Hints:
This protein is α+β, with helices and mostly antiparallel strands. The chain has one domain. The protein has helices spanning 2-6, 25-34, 42-53, 99-109, 136-140; strands at residues 8-10, 38-40, 58-67, 73-80, 83-88, 91-92, 117-126, 131-133. The relative contact order is 0.15.
Amino acid sequence: MRALHNNFVWTQDGPGRLFDSIDSPASCWDRAFNYPPLRDDCDGFHSALYWAVSQHFSCRLLTVATLPLHHSHTVLIIRNKGQYHLANYTYLSTALSDLDAVIKDLFRTFYRDKNVQMVTWELSVWDKTRWTHAPLQDFLH
């Protein structure tokens, strides 16, 4: 995580590219380590992290849509032996029991000083060609 973060420059998306995750996880990883730095926002960073983590663990991108919209955020959730970990840039949570605990931890750490309201959230998985919606029940088992 730290090596990726060291090769990353946070770059805000324009209004037409919110929640884009346009590049594949492998492409984001490649840009970070073979053509650094990776210039992207939260979805690009966590897409690259997804590439590394998914080789060994089940994981999903979690996108939280908020009001105000500009505080919306994408992170990585990792499942290991029936427990979950929140990966948010250089932060890695302790083991969490379920998705509700993951979202609470995200609000406790990332959103702690922001006045935001969660509107909705979505899990995404890379299906070898594109990002797709990932049903929660598929990730729980």
